[in-house]
Amino acid sequence: MSSQQNSNVTKDATTEATVINLYAAAEKIYPRSTFGFFTKWRWVMIWLTQLFFYGVPWLEWGQRQALLFDLEARRFYIFNLVLYPQDLIYLTAILIISALSLFLFTAIAGRLWCGYTCPQTVYTEIFLWIEAKIEGDRAARMKLDGAGMSIKKILTKGSKHLVWITFALWTGFTFVGYFTPIRELGTAVINMGLGPWQTFWVLFYGFATYGNAGFMREQVCKYMCPYARFQSAMFDDDTLIVTYDEKRGEPRGKASLKADLDKNKQGACIDCSMCVQVCPTGIDIRKGLQYECIGCGACADVCDTVMDKMGYERGLVKYSTQHAMNMGWNHTQMLRRILRPRVMVYTAILVLLVVMLLTSLVTRNAFRVDVVRDRGVMARMAEGGMLENVYRLQIMNATESAQRYKLSATGLDKLKVESDVADGENIVIVNAAESRWIPVRLQIPDGSIKPGSHHVQFVVEATALDQKVIEESVFLVPR
């Protein structure tokens, strides 16, 4: 019996499972606050982008919201421009131009978009500022998180999260205000009459802001954002990036104020790790270019501060290019490399697309017309021996005032236009920024043309705008 027990113990010991973690647990990053030229510019961009985002929905243009994507009415208002779903080509052009602009900007200046204007970066900075105001600086936040649960910790953390949630919900409310008139939305919130669609998106966008900026932060940039993964395809040795001057900084080590570095055979980097402490993604810029770097310049600001205190020259960490660092170029030599083939191609395509888009917008008619045949009736006999085809015309008025439209048709001899909703002169009135379906009948004397399909043209004229639209269709004569 004893030998059997020993055998079982041995067997259990040899088959003991070993747990191997495939992913290392992510340590929380506590970015240190910093000041400097690039930090000031980052906050300037934060103010500009947020004033635009939170302020534009409240602007009025005439008697309506200046910028409104009204999905329910299927109309997009962009100041004096009114677009319909049929104008999807303009949205496509804008998206293509935005993508090419990003490619061009990345080829020239790296990830400055990420560091200064990306919503993830902007809201993370705002949430960090709120956190610092309530919980204190980096050391205080680390001490608070490491402390045990107490009334003070609960009140401090609770206050921070209350402000975060309030700000996130206001962000969600503003976002929905671009798709639902924001004043009506505000009234609905006050009267507790918010619809299910608006409620869902306010909470969803607010939750996304709260989670991404409050908790996930750098994880979004490092693991979720695709831009970090394909940026290398747009970078080259002349792209402006945040760089560490290794030739000047190494060998790093502790040094006294205004020490003679040449005499001590020591680099300018004093290995203070301040560049790591201020980095919002927690990387060490001294290890070279890394995909996690968002190009915010915080490490350059704090390093310049350290260099000033040590009495050393600034620029140990700075914006530069790989060619400039390797060749020892100055700013003028570095800027000369901006107009290289890749940049020229991006610029040429971008300028061409912008010119085409603006030309199309300037020359577009102030109304659109769609023609749909009545599928239930191919052709039929009408009074007076007339053969008629039935159509439906959709007239979309893209102006801010009611317009009168005259209907006519060409393409066949003795072709007549009849409509029950128009007066004797075939005049139709469409209200401002609205669309209207008009039933129309085309008639010709029976037997005047041979059987088959015949091309006709509907002509719709805006009498006050001196514009007209011609739409093709067919007139069917049965055999």
What does this structure look like?
This protein is of the alpha+beta class and 479 residues long. It folds into three domains: 37-231, no CATH class; 239-324, no CATH class; 367-477, Sandwich (Immunoglobulin-like), CATH 2.60.40.10. The protein contains 18 helices and 16 strands. The chain has helices at residues 2-14, 37-55, 88-109, 112-116, 119-135, 138-146, 151-176, 182-190, 196-216, 218-224, 227-230, 246-249, 261-264, 274-278, 298-310, 322-327, 331-335, 341-363; strands at 60-61, 64-65, 67-70, 75-78, 81-83, 241-244, 317-320, 367-373, 380-382, 386-397, 403-410, 416-418, 427-430, 435-445, 452-462, 467-477. Strands 8, 9, 10, 12 and 14 form a five-stranded antiparallel β-sheet that branches. Strands 13-11-15-16 form a four-stranded antiparallel β-sheet, with no helix packed on it. It is elongated, with a radius of gyration of 33 Å. It starts with a helix and ends with a strand. Residues 1-5 and 7-13 have low confidence and may be disordered.
Q: Into which percentage range does the β-strand content fall?
A: 15-25%
Helix content: 40-55%
From the N-terminal CA to the C-terminal CA, the straight-line distance is 104 Å
Mean pLDDT: 88
Question: Strand count, sense and closure of the main sheet?
Answer: 5 strands, antiparallel
Number of helical regions: 18
* Number of self-contained structural domains: 3
Radius of gyration: 33 Å
Q: Characterize the overall form.
A: elongated
Low-confidence spans? 1-5, 7-13
Structural class: alpha+beta
Q: How many beta-strand elements? A: 16
